[in-house]
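[audit] Reproducing an earlier prediction to check determinism. Same input, same settings, fresh worker. If the tokens differ from the archived copy the diff job will pick it up downstream; this log only records the rerun itself.
[audit] input (158 residues):
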Amino acid sequence: MKRSNVLSWDQYFMGLAQLSSLRSKDPSTQVGACIVDSCNKVVSIGYNGFPIGCSDDVFPWDKQGNMIDTKYAYVVHAELNAILNSNADLRNTTIYVTLFPCNECAKAIIQSGIKKVVYQSDKYADSDIVIASKKMLQAANIQLVQFDENFEIKLIKK
């Protein structure tokens, strides 16, 4: 008899997004993303971090201060990293993200042809950035689905 308590596709792909977020060196917010095609094949993953060639030992991780002295001027978000990391046609794909996309990532999601966003946390729902993001994503007929927030990948640590 086969095992019945296997991960659903949504759990599997959100688990990959969660696992990807663990690569982020951001001390305050780790975000992961996983892009999947209509055949349930992973076409890309990403996490928030600095661009290739920009050392995370040199650039700032600060959240406060002048823009040039904070991470916000330099960090590439998980969604954009996943889009940029892909060599596939992203039209009609689904992106799984651990945090609802900002307005800048929403633009990239729309432009790349992604048709569904499955997100876990929406902790910035009341911010102007996320309100603008939702407005654009809805106008572009992108399906928005909140994933069960109680699911978390369990890592075995030695």
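[audit] rerun output stored. Observation attached for the diff report: The chain has four helices and five strands.
[audit] end
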